[in-house]
Automatic annotation (TrEMBL), chains A, B:
<keyword id="KW-0594">Phospholipid biosynthesis</keyword>
<keyword id="KW-0808">Transferase</keyword>
<dbReference type="GO" id="GO:0008654">
    <property type="term" value="P:phospholipid biosynthetic process"/>
</dbReference>
<comment type="pathway">
    <text>Lipid metabolism; phospholipid metabolism.</text>
</comment>
<keyword id="KW-0012">Acyltransferase</keyword>
<keyword id="KW-0963">Cytoplasm</keyword>
<keyword id="KW-1208">Phospholipid metabolism</keyword>
<dbReference type="GO" id="GO:0043811">
    <property type="term" value="F:phosphate:acyl-[acyl carrier protein] acyltransferase activity"/>
</dbReference>
<dbReference type="GO" id="GO:0005737">
    <property type="term" value="C:cytoplasm"/>
</dbReference>
<comment type="similarity">
    <text>Belongs to the PlsX family.</text>
</comment>
<dbReference type="InterPro" id="IPR003664">
    <property type="entry name" value="FA_synthesis"/>
</dbReference>
<comment type="function">
    <text>Catalyzes the reversible formation of acyl-phosphate (acyl-PO(4)) from acyl-[acyl-carrier-protein] (acyl-ACP). This enzyme utilizes acyl-ACP as fatty acyl donor, but not acyl-CoA.</text>
</comment>
<keyword id="KW-0443">Lipid metabolism</keyword>
<keyword id="KW-0444">Lipid biosynthesis</keyword>
<dbReference type="Pfam" id="PF02504">
    <property type="entry name" value="FA_synthesis"/>
</dbReference>
<comment type="subunit">
    <text>Homodimer. Probably interacts with PlsY.</text>
</comment>
<dbReference type="InterPro" id="IPR012281">
    <property type="entry name" value="Phospholipid_synth_PlsX-like"/>
</dbReference>
Length: 349, 349
């Protein structure tokens, strides 16, 4: 039996969406049970033999700062859900709450894995091959070192291996060109580390990739620092939303275009389904001593259910043990990198 | 009379496209003349009273390295076009050649303006408001300082002021959140400089913007380092091309979807026109002692003509003098920033 702790209060819509998703999830997964964390009696609205309400008196708002979430809302549904994982009452926690607060709380409550300096956020972006490219980091770390990028690559590989059953997923380093001489100093250092890890067999590193390669599906995993990843993700969201808006406007311009929309409806809905980011909802917080998944704040029931499914799959396939094992396997390389970089940074000491 | 020097050999298609664009441009601009730079007799194929062939024996290939372009192809069409600007024979140069070679050659031949450490590449990205957002830097500088970002903001403001007749265009700093406390150390430093420039009246700085704000049109100008800008631009191109590919596939799936495509044709072509990046072709190389515009390598005649129009507009409105004046006006601030940063970097000296 897999147990997930669900922050039912988080996200733009709260229990209305999360409880509907929980019901659908339970119906489809007979070996799963859910801890519905949140304010009573709200979370008790879902009555199911495999759903159990867990009381949490506070709610982290979507615009609460990390400080407010950590210091002033110690009994928040987000935190109580994560604590279920820490205490072994749940295999994974899922929340649609605000990203900064979720990462900070998860890190505070669960701590990072040995050998990992910074946890990262990994999400899936649909690609032209009909699958999805896993991209990390998506905003948890704005000032990264080359070693951090290597750690992200290792954790991302474990994630994709577990969730897609791909034993040696390919890793690309996001850069401004494919040639090894391109990029910032940081990226060049990271590329060297990744090549070394590839040579040792710790990673399937395929080299530099560019922004458009995310959509070409050139690599299973694309590694970047959190600043670049966040900008890329928000740029993608912005463009997709602009195109969607333009399509709506053009098809509703007059009686003729509305007729065209009716005729084209099956095509447009196939297109919409194909581009549907809800199918890929559920970002993994990697590098912690426990599994936490983050749903998009604006998720509807279908999207939130996907995040639950991803957490369930990760728990069933013991993602945590996989990440731990891969990090341990790469530990000598990470230690060597650290020493090398320290030597470079302070040549006189 | 405005004179443009055109690298007719550059780009994926060479003279076939560039000469067609030159003819259309000349027909629409009676006070312009063109220097058609390239191999003879190819560039002589266009015969027009206001077009003059200028011989250049070599061509920089799209995959030539900067070294090859600079050292081994000293008589390239790209270089000769830029030299026309240096020697005062042309007001601006336009090339669809490879970006790295073009920037390096332009920098070598023309040198940077006083007070500018690094030239930048500024392009326009269509936004939901029906206009375009100017984004810089797009890849010329992968390791930037906070001062570089301030210089980009100043040069971008001059560009938009001149090309759009907007006297105080708004400037946003690309970041991972709107709050001032967000971002990498570099971005926080840059934000401080930009705020100081805003307070002095040198800039209309509106604060941090996020990736999706490029498409919302939240700021006239979005400033970022070249690494982030390049990733964002290529990500945009990748997503747009994937969506375009999906649409083609879905509409050509079977006889019914093909019928739908015919009915929806006017809507789809309106949509295509609206999203048409060709209308925004022509990136400015800013910070040099001369005007150089870069066309997309894959530009067709319509797109290349747009790049010519942008160079023409820039020359007619004396963009160079505007950039020079704005940089001079902000010189005290730049000098102060340099001193402040040097002091921070070496506290003991």
């Amino acid at each position: 039996m897999i147990t997930l702790a669900v922050d039912c209060m988080g996200g733009d819509h709260g229990p209305q969406v999360t409880l509907a998703a929980c019901r659908r999830f339970l119906e489809a997964h007979e070996d799963a049970q859910l801890l519905l964390v949140g304010q009573l009696p709200q979370v008790q609205a879902l009555s199911h033999a495999r759903a159990h309400a867990v009381a949490a008196s506070e709610v982290v708002a979507m615009d609460d700062s990390v400080e407010v979430a950590l210091r002033r809302k110690k009994d928040s549904s987000m935190r109580v859900a994560i604590e279920q994982v820490k205490h072994g009452a749940a295999h994974a926690a899922v929340s649609a709450g605000n990203t900064g607060a979720l990462m900070a709380t998860a890190r505070y409550v669960l701590k990072t894995l040995e050998g990992i300096d910074r946890p990262a956020i990994a999400t899936q972006i649909p690609n032209a091959r009909g699958g999805a490219t896993t991209v990390l980091d998506l905003g948890a770390n704005v000032d990264c070192s080359a070693e951090n990028l290597l750690q992200f690559a290792i954790m991302g590989s474990a994630l994709v291996a577990v969730l897609k059953g791909e034993p040696r997923p390919s890793v690309g380093l996001l850069n401004v060109g494919e040639e090894a001489i391109k990029g910032s100093e940081l990226i060049k250092q990271a590329a060297e580390l990744l090549r070394a890890a590839g040579a040792r067999g710790d990673l399937n590193f395929i080299g530099n990739v560019e922004g458009n390669d995310i959509f070409r599906g050139a690599a299973d995993i694309v590694v970047c620092d959190g600043f670049v990843g966040n900008v890329a993700l928000k740029t993608i969201e912005g463009l997709a939303s602009m195109i969607g808006g333009f399509m709506k406007e053009e098809f509703s311009r007059n009686i003729f275009t509305k007729f065209a929309a009716i005729v084209a409806y099956p095509v447009l809905s196939a297109l919409k389904k194909r581009m549907d980011h809800r199918r890929y909802n559920g970002a993994a917080l990697l590098g912690l001593r426990g599994l936490v998944f983050k749903s998009h704040g604006s998720a509807d029931a279908l999207a939130f259910e996907q995040a639950l499914v991803r957490a369930y799959d990760a728990a069933r396939n013991d993602l945590l043990a996989q990440v731990r094992a891969q990090v341990a396997r790469a530990a000598p390389l990470l230690a060597a990198a650290e020493t090398a970089l320290e030597t470079t940074a302070s040549p006189g000491l």
